Amino acid sequence: MGREVENLIKENTELLETKNALNIVKNDLIARVDELSSEQDILREEIRSLEMVRAKMNDRIKELETELRDMKEKSEGRGDEDQVGIFGPCSNAYKEKLMELQEAVKWTELQRAKRMNAMQANKKSGSIWDLYAFVAFLVPLTIRNRFASKARSRRKTSKNVDFMDPDLASERRAAERRQQYKIVREHIRKEEGDRVHVNGWSLPANSTEETGSSSIPIPVFCRPLLDLDPSLKIWCASGVTLRGGKNAESEFINDEKLPSLIVGDDSSLLPVNDFSKKRFQSTEMSALESSSLLWVCSSNQDKSHVGLLDCNNPNGLVGSFSVPSAQILCVSSVPGVRESECFLVDNGWKAFVKGGGYVKDLPSDITDQDEFGTVQWTELRKLDSGEEGTPTYCGLEQKPSPKRSRDSIFSDTELSKTGDGQYSRLPVHIKQELEKYEKCDGDLSAQPTMWLGTQNEYILIHSAVTEWQKCLRKVKMPDAVLYIQYCEGRVFAALANGSNLGKATSSVRSLTVVGNFLWAAYRNCVVIIDPKELIIVKAIAVHPRRDSQVRHMQWIGDGVWLSIRLDSTLRLYHAHTHIHLQDVDIEPYITKMLGTNKLDFAYMRTTALLVACRRLWMGTGTGLIVSVPFCEKFQATGKDEVHGPGGLIRVYSDRIADEEAVSKSFIPYCDMTKAQLSFHGHKDPVKFLLAVPDDNGSRKAQQNKQQKLLIASGGDGYIDFRMGNTFKKSLIRLSSYLIYHLDKI
C-alpha cells in the first residue's frame, strides 16, 4: 500500500513539472502572437501609404504623358532644322572621304596599269604562247562566255560574302597583313651592305662616322595612351606654350625669353637678333619656347577624350577629361596676352574690311578671283548657356547647333588642390612654369589657353594653366574646324568649307607661320597672308592637279617643306622668293628598305610632317617614321664651310646688308641617301609628330649647354617591323605614342 502511494506522489510531481513547462510555453506563444499582431498592424499601415504613393505616381505619369504628347506635337515642325544641323557636318565629312576614296581608286588603277605594262613588256613571246593563243581562238565563243560568266559569278559571290560578313573580311585582311609583316621582317633581316642598325634605326653606314652616335635618335618610351577604351583613336595633339598672360594685379607677365639658338662648329650657342630671328626662326625654335606638356586628343563617333601627357615623365597621364558628343579634329596652343600685341579698339575693325580682286597673278586653279581676298566682319552674339554654364557665341545670322551634352568627366588623375597648391601632383618643371599663374583669379582667357576644333562646328577654349576640363568659351563656326594657328596676336581657324579663302567647295587643310606671314593650304595652292593687315600677298600653285590638296607645311630657315594628299613626293619652296627648290620622293627609299611586297604602300602618303633637330621627320600612312638630316648645297670657304648636318650657320647683324644675309641663308635641302628609317612604328597612319624641350634639368641650368629636344609621335597601335605582328592584340590595337631623344640639335 505504501509503494502505491509513493508512485502516485511521484506521478503528481511529474505532472506538476509538465504543467509548469506548458505554462512557460503558453506565455512565450502569447508574447509571440502579440509581436506578430503588432507587425501586422505596421505592415497594414505601410500598405496604405504605398497605395497612396502609387495613386500619386499614376497621376504624375498621366501628367508626363500629356506633356510628352504636347512636346512631340510642338517639335514636329522643328525636326527638319535639327536634322539639318546634325547631318550637316556628317555630309561634309562623307564628301571629303568620297574624294579621298576616288583618288585612291585612281591611284590603284594607275599602279595596276603600270604593273600590267611591265609584265607585258617582260613577257617572252614564243611558239608556246602562239599555240596557246591559237587554241584559245579555236574554243567557241559561247563556251568562253560561259566560263567567263561563271568566273564573274564566283568573284561576285566571294565579294558579297565579305560584304555580308565583316568579321570574315577583317579576319582575311588581318591574315594578309600578318603575312606581309612576315615578308617585311625577312627582308629586313637579309638587308646588308651599306646600312647599319643602331637604336632601332636603319642608317647609312657612313652616317655614324660623319656625325657620331649622338646624332642618332634614341627611342626612350612607348606605351598605349588609353588602356581602358580601345575604341578611341588618336586624332591630334599639341604642345602647351606657357607664355604671356596677366597676373593678379592685371599686369602683363614678362616672361624670361629663351634665346633662339643656333649650334656652331665649336658647340657654342649664338644669340639671334631681331632681324635674323624673323628670318631663321622655325618650328624647332618655337618648340624650345614651349613646355613638355602635351594635349593628346582621341576620338570616335560618340565622344572625344583629351589626355595631358608630360613627355619628360610619360609613364602616366597628368590629367584627362572627356568631351561627349563631339569629335575633336584639331588642337592648338595659344599663349596669353602680351603687351606687344596689337589690340582692337572701337570700330577698329572697319580698317580691315575690304573687297576682293586685288591679288594679281593668281593661279588659274583658284576660281572666283574677283571675290578672292575679301575680308568681312562678323559680329557675334551671346547665346543662352543653359545648364552647361559655358558662354557660347555665334554670328547674328547663324543658328546654333542642336544642344549636346557637354558634361566633362575628369579622370582619377585629377589635380589635387590639397597640400602644396593646386599643382602639387604635377612634375616639378611643369609646376615651376605654372606657379606664376596660380594666383591669377581674373579672366582665364587672358592666360595661356588651348583651342579645340570640333566636327560639329565649334571652337572650344580651355585653360592651359588650371581647371583644364572646364570649357571657358564656345564659338560657333560656319563649318567644321580643321586647323587652328596662332600668329601675331591673332588666332586663325581653317574651316572645312573653305570660307576663310574661297567658296564652300574646298577646305583649308593647314596653316603655318613663315616669318611675318601666314601660309594657308587651299586646294593645290598655298595662299600667303599678312596676318597684321589681313591681306593676301600672293598665291602659288604647288601641284598641277586641282584635287591634290596640300596637307602639311613645315618651315625652317629660308625653306618650307610641303606634302600633298595621296602623294609620296615632298616639295621644298623658298620662304621669301617662293621658288620651287627641290622634290623628294620617299617611295623608292621605303621600297628599297622594306621590299617590293610592302604593306599597302601603294598609298605612300605623308600623314605627319615635322622639322626638328636639323632634320625632316615624316610619318606615313602605314605607320612608318622616316628622318632625313638637312644638308646645304652651296659651297662656302674658310670658316663658313659647312660640314654636313649640324654644321656652322652664320647669323648676320643689322649692319650687314639684307642681300648678303639672304645669299648665305640656310636652305634645308634633303638627301635621301642619308635618310634614316625607324623600325618602331604604328599599325595605322602616324597622326602627329611633335617636338618638345627636354626639361629634365632646369632651363637656367641648360642655358650654357646645348638645348635638347624630345620627338613624340602618335598613332593607332605599335609595330616593330623587325619582329612583325608578334605582340599582343591589345597592344597592337590601342592608340600608342613613341618618344625619341636626340643629344644635339
TrEMBL record:
Please classify the protein's predominant subcellular localization into one broad category.
cytoplasm
Keyword annotations from UniProtKB, A to Z: Coiled coil, Cytoplasm
Q: Which GO terms describe its biological process?
A: vesicle-mediated transport
Please give the SUPFAM superfamilies that the UniProt record associates with this protein.
Quinoprotein alcohol dehydrogenase-like
Domain (JNK-interacting protein leucine zipper II) spans 1-69
- Reading the lineage from the top rank, the first entry is Eukaryota
**What stretch or stretches form a coiled coil here?**
26-81
Q: Which family does it belong to?
A: Belongs to the JIP scaffold family.
What this protein is called in its record is: JIP_LZII domain-containing protein
